[in-house]
Amino acid sequence: MCKLNELPNNEEKYNKILSYFDTDLDILDWEGLNERAWKKKETDGWYKKDIFEYQTATGWKHKNSRIEMEIDLFSNASEVNRYNTNAMYFSVVWRTKRYYPDGNEGSGFYWSEETLGCSDIVKENMTPKGFKNDK
After folding, report:
1. Residues 6+ apart with CB under 8 A from 126
2. Are 16 and 61 in contact (CB under 8 A)?
3. pLDDT for position 121
4. In sequence order, what are the residues at sequence separation of 6 or more whose Cβ sits closer than 8 angstroms to the Cβ of residue 24?
């Protein structure tokens, strides 16, 4: 699933990612996404002027008891739509069923479960469509 982030940012990639949410670019709830959109701060690591100025997310969907996923969409316009989405990032988290002791004297000691996500698995591809690096 995380390998989808390595594909070029285009309609084919976006529809492959959206298929995990039983949707595609044509029937995606753009209105709902725009209600959750926010302007990124320039100090945000993913901010790029005139490219990644706005972000929205689908919210987490549980695929099963061990996998949950979310999609982040990036745009240069406050109203995100299929034509100005410059990049899409697929976040997937796996519960590993591997536990380790955690906590401290204040919170008490307990068992925490190790999780793995896309940032632990593959390199992020955040090059927007049409972007040319002048360097």
Report:
1. 46, 52, 74, 87, 89
2. no
3. 65
4. 15, 18
pTM to 2 decimals? 0.79
Using CA atoms, how far residue 135 sits from 33, 52, 120, 132, in Å, is 34, 19, 28, 9
Retrieve residue 102's tokens: 């955690």
**Residue 30: exposed, middle, or buried by beta-carbon count in 10 A (0-12, 13-18, 19+)?**
middle
Amino acid at 128: P
Average pLDDT of the segment spanning 53-80: 95
> DSSP secondary structure string, 105-135?
TTTEEEEEEEEEEHHHHS------TT-----
Across the chain, which distance is largest between two alpha carbons, in Å?
53
Number of H helices and E strands in the chain, helices first, is: 3, 6
Structure tokens at 134: 């002048």
Distance of alpha carbon 15 from alpha carbon 79, whole angstroms: 20
